[in-house]
Amino acid sequence: MAKNILVTGGAGYIGSHTVLQLLLGGYSAVVVDNLDNSNAVALERVKEIAGKHSKNLSFHQVDLRDRPALEKVFSKTKFDAVIHFAGLKAVGESVEKPLLYFDNNLIGTITLLEVMAAHGCKKLVFSSSATVYGWPKEVPCTEQFPLSAANPYGRTKLFIEEICRDIYRSDSEWKIILLRYFNPVGAHPSGQIGEDPRGIPNNLMPYVQQVAVGRRPHLTVFGSDYSTKDGTGVRDYIHVVDLADGHIAALQKLSDAKKIPLVMAGRRPGDAGIVYASTEKAERELNWKAKYGIDEMCRDQWNWASKNPYGYGSPETTK
């Protein structure tokens, strides 16, 4: 049976590309979108590209704040996980209308999480944003950077991240991955789906695109006196299909997570509280230094265990 994935905001730019990659990857996708800044035509195009996989796509025009409508969607399908894109995303508009953004993005997400919990769906990939780093003092940004936000839009992303962390702390059955990124650009190679913002674009590439095809007279570059190579601002970009695949990779990681049963017991006789070694002498006299950390240790251990669950033997020889 194909896994059922709910994609909120799945008719949007990133959402529609992710839905397509889900379908091509053998998943079933259910999209909920209020079409506030998206178009149902995108999903019709997705079906055309997906071909025989299109039967695994369904769409409900639903606002996440409409709890009864969202409950109805969950009552019809048992979802394995949710990819959450839905939300308003214009930085400038969020400064002008902060309450609109808090209502839409925060209330919508809280309602989604409550309905997910009520229906036993506790796996979530959240489309966050690198805007949660605020104005970092150095680049490139890493996940260890302090978090802050410079505008209401960014604060909604940061607040939702904090909500997710608190939910996980309160109930370890939740499995949540937060993905932060800056500027998705490009379109599916077929040319059938892409970014189509309503009104004046808030991002660079759609603006360039509209000037190039004659919809707008010129491109305005904001700032030419920054301390950069040509004086203009520097940003990073990611192809939207790569980003879509990244969300699916996160989805797969949620499914791959194994819970190890744990029992806390009393101390073993003879065990010390803390013991670990220094490697300074080995580094100094042998010119040797360990290359692998705990992530690689766990990765390689699991790689061996998953391929050889009974070691070199078999279930019969290890009884």
Average of pLDDT: 93
In whole angstroms, the N-to-C terminal distance is 33 Å
User: Would you count the extended β strands for me?
Assistant: 8
Total of helices: 10
Beta content comes to 5-15%
Characterize the largest beta sheet: strand count, sense, and whether it forms a barrel. 6 strands, parallel
Unreliable residue runs: none
What is the string of SSEs from the N terminus onward?
Answer: EHEHEHEHHEHEEHEHHH
The outline comes out as globular
The amount of helix comes to: 25-40%
Strand order, biggest sheet? 3-2-1-4-5-6
Task: Walk me through the structure.
The protein is α/β, with parallel strands linked by helices. It contains ten helices and eight strands. 39% of the residues lie in helices and 11% in strands. The strands form two sheets. A six-stranded parallel beta sheet has the order 3-2-1-4-5-6, with helices on both faces. Helix 1 (13-24) links the parallel strand 1 (4-8) and strand 2. Helix 1 (13-24) packs parallel to helix 2 (40-50), helix 1 (13-24) crosses helix 8 (240-256) and helix 5 packs parallel to helix 6. The mean pLDDT is 93.
